[in-house]
Amino acid sequence: MIKIVLVDDHFMVRDGIRAILEDEEQYSVVGEASNGPEAIELVQSLSPDIVICDIRMPQMSGIEVVQKITALDNSVRTIMLSMHDSDEYILQSINAGAEGYLLKDAGKEEFLKAISVVSKGDKYFSGDVSSILVRSIKGSDSSNISAIDTNVAKKQSSKDLFELTKREAQILRLAVSGMTNKDIAQELNISKRTTEVHRFNLMKKMGVKNVLELNNKAREYGMIP
Amino acid sequence: MIKIVLVDDHFMVRDGIRAILEDEEQYSVVGEASNGPEAIELVQSLSPDIVICDIRMPQMSGIEVVQKITALDNSVRTIMLSMHDSDEYILQSINAGAEGYLLKDAGKEEFLKAISVVSKGDKYFSGDVSSILVRSIKGSDSSNISAIDTNVAKKQSSKDLFELTKREAQILRLAVSGMTNKDIAQELNISKRTTEVHRFNLMKKMGVKNVLELNNKAREYGMIP
DNA sequence: TCAAAAATAAGTATTAATACTTATTTTTTA
DNA sequence: TAAAAAATAAGTATTAATACTTATTTTTGA
């Protein structure tokens, strides 16, 4: 179970994010803060895995919050939420120690992907943001290019979040295309019973109870085209 | 069964389109032409419902072809295929009598939606194209605005293509969300047997044999969000 | 090289979906 | 207001999926 703390001065935003995460079993929103000092307190008392923090808040900015959180406990991963994709903000967030930067107009799918990528220890920056990064990195020394990956390279990590094996991922793709276990067995030259086990295991790993939920979840995480 | 004639000087393009349409039971590609005169002949002998025509061809341009076809038989609906979204081409196509304008880089989904919309008597213009239309209409008199609708307003007409009833469309949405017949019955306060019948009927109408194919097809046609 | 992980496959039950048909009651709408 | 269309629901069978467990054989990685 991945523990998440939400930091945003708008109740509506926190509530929206909470609603999205409530449908996902592997995540649990353990706390909410509406300002910086509260957030820092919460992180100390709850030691969450991920903090999702708005960049623009009264009193203390998200940048400062992330800076302080990272200084206190650098096992906590932070994702910045922002309205804008200005170079300034993004670079400052990275320097402060943020592992992700998401525009607020990102869809649910991208949002979940960002969390899944960051929770695996990778970094996530939404589409437009990555190009800004690339631009800024081109001017500097390239020693940290491997450390800052763009989301393009992270497509396959959603598979890892659920720890699917190669065969399971393969069967997932075939199953959501509408093939029955029998069809899949024939296609892969294995027994129907084997595909049943694979399907059972992968459904358990992904926490779904029928093929359609499997399909919907796989789509949400961008695991299928 | 909706009869379609393909007109394009490239064999590969015709073949690709044919392959897409072969998976769709409600359509049948009854003829192919590689140039204008051939196309006109085919339309006269086969009287198809829809002609899909490339705009740029040697000898006779797609615009001319559509013009002549419309003059001969104005029950035939035409969709223009183009590489470019230039104002010129689009406006000329509309004047020639085309009911749709599709960029060649449109995906399968958009392609199918365009055909479904046009086959119902509506007009379809792909995203970027609509803005050009709006721009050109703004300068002229607005008497023909209602005649030229953009694809945005056409979302619901795919439901009509399969002639789904209101209840069927409702059950489609619930079914693809992962709900079982029992769940749906409870939700709608009807018997499980009733939802089974609705599901059976709607699957028959859409020509699919399980929920996942139903899901995939509904997505293809933009019937579900 | 050897232990751990993955892939294979069978067993046993239960539940849900698919594939129809028939038939009554409501709604629409021409 | 009568006829057509839609929604309702039951019947009967068959097939497929779901929910496990156990167990053997391959692969693979440290």
From TrEMBL, chains A, B:
Residues annotated as domain HTH luxR-type: 157-222
Pfam families the record matches: GerE (PF00196), Response_reg (PF00072)
Residue ranges constituting the Response regulatory domain according to the UniProt record: 3-119
This protein's record includes keyword Phosphoprotein: yes
Keywords per UniProt: DNA-binding, Phosphoprotein
Modified-residue entries (4-aspartylphosphate), positions: 54
Gene Ontology BP terms: phosphorelay signal transduction system; regulation of DNA-templated transcription
UniProt key word DNA-binding: yes
GO molecular-function term, one example from the UniProt record: DNA binding
Protein name: Response regulator transcription factor
Organism: Aquimarina algiphila
